[in-house]
Amino acid sequence: MIDRRLFSHFDWFTLAITALLTCVGLATVYSATHVHLQGIYKREMYWIIIGFAFLLAAVIVNYSLLERLGYVIWGSSLLLLIAVFIIGKSSGGAKRWINLGVFYLQPSELAKLALIIALAKYYSNRPLPAKGLTLRDLAVPGLLLAAPFLLIAKQPDLGTAIILWMIFWSMALIVKIRLRTLIGMGLVMAAMIPIGWKMLKPYQKARLTSFLDPAKDTLGTGYHVMQSKIAIGSGGLTGKGFTAGTQGKLMFLPEHHTDFIFSVYAEEWGLLGALILFTLFTFLIIRGHAAATDAKDRFGFLLAFGITSMFFWHAAINIGMVAGILPVVGVPLPFISYGGSFLITCMMAAGLIINVRMRRFMF
User: Fold this and answer.
1) What pLDDT does residue 4 have?
2) What own/partner pairs with CB < 8 Å and gap ≥ 24 does 277-282 have?
3) CA pseudo-torsion sign 338, 343, 313, 194
4) Per-residue pLDDT for 118 more than 70?
5) pLDDT at residue 1 above 50?
6) Minimal CA–CA distance to 170: which of 318, 309, 331?
7) Which of 30, 127, 287, 324 is deepest in the core (most CB within 10 A)?
8) Is pLDDT of 203 > 80?
9) Average pLDDT over every residue of 257-286
10) pLDDT for 27
11) Half-sphere exposure of 190 (CA within 13 A, CB side)
């Protein structure tokens, strides 16, 4: 039987923010695709319904179960990432999807939640050194990151790999790392930059460098960013109005319903609309932080914090990317960008924040 106290502590505010962001996303996907890609927004509606079902499931199941199954979830996610290379579908030079008949699953999206759960389990089940984690303490968490990180980078999916990297360090820093260890690892990673650079694909190198001067190759590597800046700038203060944007409608803006959907939104709703969207994301992040702070146990704290960091880095990198202040690395915007696996992952993540918060008084 479900404890009635759960309903009295239900986090309606986080649910409302999630619903508002999802509605904004659906409207923007419709605006971006109703002329040339009419089936996209219809599929987005189906994904939203499925996503809310997963959100509800993430709310109902006690999050302590995730702690017990943490490594099983991580291992299952790893098997799915390996399966991509065996039975996966290739598109646009990348192999990221598994055909399940009725839809395509992108395991790299689920890997984000799996990593957060596994890291939260590891850190919560061990006494933490008073002075902070040492290199030895980071060995197992490093392996939990390295396996999915390398498999995802191999697909290749640089954007998701970067998100995993940022989640890992966000959670490690909140747990606390010894300053000496942190400086030493920073020096080692700096020394490995040339090796990492050589491992990148040519188009990935072009994406990482084009943001420095996108006007240098406006029809090549700088095209995405230039068109995105035009769309954002043309929105002005109040925007051109719903479905009245031209950059996406006339197909000047690539990936206008996925990675660059914020450009479509900003063109139609202007600076004021962008500020409203920023406010919604800020509320979501603040609410996630509050859920972490008020959690009844360390696992709940780390779970909510890891999810909040995932939302933060997704939003920060995507908006910085489309505004031209960060390299284009293929990171979608939570709840706004089109994508079934990504939307379901975001819905489950929001459900887990609600789960942690409403069980803060349950013992």
Assistant:
1) 64
2) 277/24, 277/336, 280/17, 280/20, 280/21, 280/24, 281/21, 281/311, 281/315, 281/334
3) negative
4) yes
5) no
6) 309
7) 287
8) no
9) 94
10) 94
11) 6
Is 0.85 topped by the overall pTM?
A: yes
**Is 207's pLDDT higher than 80?**
no
Instruction: Please report, rounded to a whole number, the percentage of residues in the chain having pLDDT higher than 90.
Output: 56
Least confident of 77-91, 214-228, 251-265: 214-228
Residue recorded with tokens 């505004």: 323
